[in-house]
Amino acid sequence: MTRAGLTGGIGSGKSTVSALLSSYGAVIIDSDRIAREVVEPGTKGLAAVVAEFGTGILLPDGTLDRPALGSIVFADPDRLRALNSIVHPLVRDRSAHLEAAAGPDTLVIHDVPLLAENGLAPLYDSVIVVDASPENQLDRLVRLRGMSEDEARARMAAQASREDRLAIADFVIDNDGPRDALEPQVRKIWEALRG
Ligand code: ADP
């Protein structure tokens, strides 16, 4: 098994690359999705978050009120650390479980948006970074994803810089070109990594 981390700034094209790798046969472990699953109603994750932050972070239907929790943790680094100390170990356990279920000859891709921000590069055999200029990120978020320009700029500013991400890359995918230019680059990495 080869284990690679895949990351990229918001709007860089990481999901598009992840879908291509999956179509070739890689097993994708999506950390954002797992982070949502571990705090679904009925989980011990959600119980721990409620114990820490109170029932005010629940919606009437018992699901997590993400904006309410976000407004607490993004205003206070200590509260963010408290949340992460609940969620991160659960995500790690679930990821390890999914990885163990993948076959021995598999290329496992850990899709981790905040890989650079959280210093996670040492966890993987190699790191793939999807790189795009901030101008292209912004354009895709606003034009294709319907985000407001202010929201897109704020999300981008909260992430690692392009340089910080490139500094941890073993493989860089240049996604400043047309979408068609992705396929050959991704295929080359797939061939290099699956051995
Ligand atoms: P991420 O997962 O990094 O946030 P996505 O893969 O969702 O980014 O890409 C953001 C948007 O840009 C999507 O609508 C996607 O279809 C589009 N996109 C990705 N790569 C390109 C490209 N090279 N040219 C034009 N649009 C692209």
Number of DSSP E strands: 5
Which class of secondary structure composition applies to the elements? alpha/beta
Number of domains: 2
Q: What is the number of helices? A: 9
CATH homologous superfamily designation of the largest domain:
P-loop containing nucleotide triphosphate hydrolases
User: What is the CATH C level class of the largest domain, in words?
Assistant: Alpha Beta
User: Which residue ranges are poorly predicted, with pLDDT under 50 across at least 5 consecutive positions?
Assistant: none
Radius of gyration over all CA atoms, rounded:
18 Å
Biggest sheet features: 5 strands, parallel
Query: What's the helix-strand series?
Result: EHEHHHHEEHHHEH
What number is the mean pLDDT?
Answer: 97
Order of adjacent strands in the largest pleated sheet = 2-3-1-4-5
**Distance linking N and C termini:** 10 Å
CATH architecture title of the largest domain: 3-Layer(aba) Sandwich
Molecules bound to protein:
adenosine-5'-diphosphate
List the quaternary state of the chains: single chain
Helix fraction, binned, reads 40-55%
The backbone outline, from C-alpha atoms, is globular
In the CATH scheme, what's the topology name of the largest domain?
Rossmann fold
Tell me the β content: 5-15%
